[in-house]
Design the sequence.
């Protein structure tokens, strides 16, 4: 089994994709021509096993099995070497602070923002295990 990524279900696909691109430097690697979903990531996206990606999808894509709901029932984790810079970029792009950059007891630098939809986005430095 491979992790292909995570999907945020939203009402405004373009605005949400723009936020993640500006806030975290993610690239658009695929867009449905009908505008109902955009895949962001680094490199090339494929529908099979691939590198992790973040898909921004309109609720109407899944209306046959799900009603629109809040985007805060999970959290997105994005790893970066410079948490403080990523946090500032996310705020400048329209995110809202949930936790200012801090260092956890195990040494990992983290910060948390909420995206314009209210989804929780944790920004964390890589953890070095001994």
Sequence:
């Amino acid at each position: 089994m491979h992790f292909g990524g995570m999907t945020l279900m939203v009402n405004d696909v373009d605005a949400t994709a723009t936020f993640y691109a500006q806030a975290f430097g993610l690239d658009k690697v695929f867009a449905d021509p009908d505008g109902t979903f955009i895949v962001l990531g680094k490199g090339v996206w494929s529908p099979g096993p691939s590198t992790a990606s973040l898909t921004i999808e309109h609720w109407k894509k899944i209306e046959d099995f799900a009603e629109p709901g809040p985007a805060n029932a999970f959290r997105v984790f994005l790893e970066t070497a410079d948490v403080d810079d990523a946090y500032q970029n996310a705020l400048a792009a329209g995110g809202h602070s949930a936790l200012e950059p801090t260092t956890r007891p195990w040494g990992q630098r983290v910060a948390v923002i909420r995206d314009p939809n209210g989804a929780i986005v944790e920004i964390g430095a890589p953890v070095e295990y001994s």
